[in-house]
Amino acid sequence: MGIGPALAPAVIGHPVRMAPYSPRDGSPPYEGTPSRWHFQWSDGVFDCFTDFFSCILGCIFYPSLAGFKAWALDKIDILPLKKGLLIFLGLAITALTFELTIHILALGHNWHRHVTDVWILQFFFAGVWVLFFFLNLKYRSRIRQHYMIEPTDACDDGCLVFFCLGCAVCQEYRHVARATGVLKDMPFPQQPTPHFTAAAHTTAPPAVVTYEVEGAQPTKGTQPWVSTGGAAAAAASPAGGGGFSSPFDPGMAITVTAPQTTGEKEGGKYAAPPSYT
Q: Which sequence spans correspond to the domains of the chain?
């Protein structure tokens, strides 16, 4: 028995609301909820002056960017603060030490005696910088995932981290600080109120069913019989004098039509394929 397609039921539900951010020490949640800061950054990459503290400190003291990065990752439980400081601050200080040493050796009076040392230090400096670059890019993507900010291709974030690491780190710091309630320099973004439309109660059209009814033996010249109503009415229809049992629910309206002379004799019985509409 084949049953035709029916209408899909209407999907009715409520919007999912995220739980408010609660600090680790058990204190009450911060004002507002982090979900208000989802789906987009709180400001642009070059809006550094919205927070003078992080902007000026990041420009004057470069290793402070590692502290901002570690603090932001710890605040949203991605990386513990001590581990973050050990990774980012350690790499930043190591790279800065290599760079200063290279400049001192290259600008000294006996620089020709330290050419080999300079090349070795430059090799290590490049390795530290590449590792520092990939870690910053990786954890920027983790912050995006945490706040469900639309991801970009690797070229976009990669170029930003490579050419303007300070801008990228300060943007992450400002966003996390605002989402957790530490930085309150701008109002919470407005969330659109979801609107729901009541689902219309429509009745699905009757299913079209085709199968063989054995026992119905129409004779030539007789009119087709029609039965409309529930299963009880269909069972009482004059199909060969005995009717047939319907597999439908008693409350479903069906129409059964037997053709006048159609049907092939198979095994001594007529098999007439009625249509149900």
A: 34-179, 207-276
Total Cβ atoms within 10 A of residue 79: 18
- Per DSSP, the three-state class of 264 is strand
pLDDT for the residue numbered 84? 95
CB 271 within 8 A of CB 212: yes
What average pLDDT values come out for the chain (277 residues) when binned by 10 residues? 50 44 46 69 88 88 90 94 94 88 79 79 90 94 92 83 92 93 71 46 50 49 46 46 46 47 48 50
Nearest of 31, 76, 63, 51 to residue 176 by alpha carbon = 76
pLDDT of residue 163: 92
- Please state, as a whole number, how many other Cβ atoms lie within 10 Å of the Cβ of residue 187: 9
Percent of the chain that is helix, strand, coil (3-state, to 5): 45, 10, 50
Q: What is the DSSP pairing of strand 269-272 with strand 213-214?
A: antiparallel
Q: Using DSSP, state whether 75 is helix, strand or coil.
A: helix
Question: Interior CA angle at 68 toward 64 and 73, to 5°?
Answer: 145
Following CA atoms 120, 121, 125, 126 in sequence, which dihedral angle do they give, to the nearest 10 degrees? -30
Nearest CA to 273 among 218, 192, 202, 191? 218
Task: Identify whether the C-beta of residue 35 lies closer than 8 Å to the C-beta of residue 18.
Answer: yes
Measured CA to CA, the distance from residue 32 to residue 30 in angstroms comes to: 6
